[in-house]
Design brief:
Layout (H helix, E strand, L loop, with lengths): L2 H8 L3 H9 L6 E2 L6 E2 L2 H15 L4 H7 L7 H32 L4 H20 L6 H4 L20 H11 L7 E5 L16 E6 L2 H10 L4 E4 L12 E7 L7 H14 E14 L2 H14 L2 H9 L3 E2 H10 L2 E7 L4 E8 L1
Parallel strand pairs: 3-4, 3-6, 4-5, 6-7, 7-8
Antiparallel strand pairs: 1-2, 7-10, 9-10
Length: 342
């Protein structure tokens, strides 16, 4: 179809479409005879995604980054729209909660209002600035093959199979329950719940990881998102699992992740996290000193490069927020937290 027809279908203007083309966001084919632009159904999906993202305030440059893969499928375009809309919705919820706190405080103090406003600004910055500095898109293709469980000077995957099996054992679900796997990667954990006839939703920020997960396990519903902006409605899942993903969040953001998990979890729901974590800060110091004495500089560098959790902080937060908590430590660096809401 030509540009006027495309603009009419999308409820926009030809000027807008030309603008997006000038910015390199769309590249419609052109008729060889008259150079008229020809828009395909695929082009319409891409443009619709751009329009939706612009509507919620995403900049042109940010959109260019989001849509830098020219071979995205139509379902992937829709998934990107959903992810962006959920992030916007969560931001709006934060704003409403901040206003409620201002009203409930009963104080008209400028300092009080300023403090709450800064809190809101901080939340917004934390959610928007998260970046994948490990580039999981590039790791996705060979991820499973690179999970080495032995033979390294410092092996972060020691106990990997035991940890995933323990998560499967701890989380009790029934057929048709909804299980959310955050940071699902290629689906090694979430797929374990398919045999229990659960509906598994896998969330990951890496489109390549989601693509490979879907190829391996077509039954899993994949969604683009991350710990701090889960693309799900409130109280919509029966269980949340995660493995080897939470340690990519700095410590101050891990508790925000628990808040977000609690938002989407049903009453009496379950959370089970297997990840790189120490029992507490004293244990972290002891382990690092042991590696230092052994001359294992690789281990020390890896621990400092990642954000291994303090398991005691996570467990305390869960206990204080209505969960019964059980903790397991598989080895010096790998632990598990199981929590059931009551």
């Amino acid at each position: 179809m030509k540009i006027k027809e495309a603009a009419k279908i999308l409820n926009t203007t030809t000027k807008t479409l030309r603008f997006y083309e000038s910015k390199g966001l769309i590249t419609p084919e052109k008729d060889e005879n008259n150079q008229y632009r020809i828009y395909t159904e695929y082009d319409l999906y891409r443009i619709n995604t751009i329009l939706a993202l612009r509507e919620i305030g995403v900049s042109v440059e940010e959109i260019k980054t989001l849509l830098n893969n020219p071979n995205l499928s139509m379902s992937q375009y829709l998934d990107i729209q959903r992810s962006a809309l959920f992030e916007q919705w969560i931001e709006m919820r934060d704003m409403i909660e901040t206003i409620d706190q201002m009203l409930d405080s009963g104080s008209n103090s400028v300092d009080n209002i300023h403090q709450l406003a800064n809190h809101l600004k901080n939340l917004k910055e934390i959610r928007s600035k998260w970046q994948d500095r490990w580039n999981f898109d590039d790791q996705a293709m060979d991820y499973d093959e690179n999970i080495k469980k032995e033979g390294h000077v410092f092996n972060v995957h020691e106990g990997y199979d035991e940890a995933l099996a323990t998560v499967e054992e701890k989380v009790h679900i029934q057929a048709e329950d909804i299980v959310l796997d955050i940071g699902i990667g290629t689906g090694n954990l979430g797929s374990r719940f398919l045999k229990k006839e659960a509906h598994v939703i896998g969330v990951d920020q890496s489109e390549k990881m989601l693509e490979i997960c879907k190829g391996k396990h077509p039954e899993i519903e994949t969604r683009k998102g991350h710990f701090l902006a889960l693309p799900l409605l409130d109280h919509s899942v029966d269980a949340i699992v995660s493995s080897y993903a939470l340690h990519h969040l700095p410590d101050e953001e891990k508790l925000l992740a628990l808040i977000e998990m609690t938002r989407v979890l049903k009453s009496n729901g379950q959370i089970c996290i297997a990840d790189l974590m120490f029992e507490n800060q004293a244990n972290r110091k002891k382990v690092l000193e042991a590696y230092q004495e052994a001359g294992n500089q690789v281990a020390i560098e890896v621990i400092h490069d990642e954000y291994f959790a303090d398991k005691s902080i996570l467990a305390n937060w869960l206990s204080e927020n209505g969960y019964q908590v059980e903790i397991i430590q598989f080895n010096d660096i790998l632990g598990l937290i199981y929590a059931k809401k009551y």
